[in-house]
Amino acid sequence: MRRRLFLSAALSVVVSLAPGLPPAQAQGKDLVVFAAASMKTALDEIAANWAKETGKPAPKISYAASNVLARQIEQGAPADLFVSADLDWMDEAAGKGAIRPGTRIELLGNRIVLIAPSTSTAAVELKPGVDLTTLLGQGRLAMGHVDAVPAGKYGKAALEKLGAWDRLKDKVAQADNVRAALLLVSRGEAPLGIVYATDAVADPGVKVIATYPADSHPPIIYPAAVTTGSAHADAAAFLAYLRGKAAQPVFEKQGFTVLNHPASGS
Fold this sequence. Notes:
By secondary structure, the protein is an alpha/beta fold.
């Protein structure tokens, strides 16, 4: 039953994150953006604002784990922009010739946090030697896949640095993306989870009980770039909009750190 619940949550979040065509079937003259799942709340708002300001159709955005998106772009999926939740998967896409040289920027920063259902009374200090097994009880720790999903990779790195991974590795519920992990906790199907701080803000069903020390994992950086295969006239313009003054407060409201200072007039 627990396994069915986990699978149900993961499948439902995939549906909710991709209301239109899946990435490999994106087509037509729309501006198509492939973006890390953790960007959904902020990027949906920014895309709507861009459409209002320009009078152009809002970009079609496909959200998934960065590893999935990078591989689809490498295989020829017709995306115009790629925003990854870590440097590694952007490097992977660039190494396969899928990213247009000279367009890549480091757009945002983020943090990872330990969350619990909003009704939980759990409390913990994330310091070396921390033991989360008591808080978990018979439950599992929800997090992105630790070998592929950026949030999962950051989470595993932090747990290893704090000396907690060996006690937890057999009690992890690995999800296909960070929003799936978030949903498991929000629904009460997992007592704890590791997600980005920005994901926790987006779901009132969870609360942050601790923030992982910045030095416990590699810096969390979201790079963005135009794809090599893009011929859309607005690809560069929307990328510029993402790093401009109009987008900055939306990202910051969601909890991202804006790494690119807006250019004058952008």
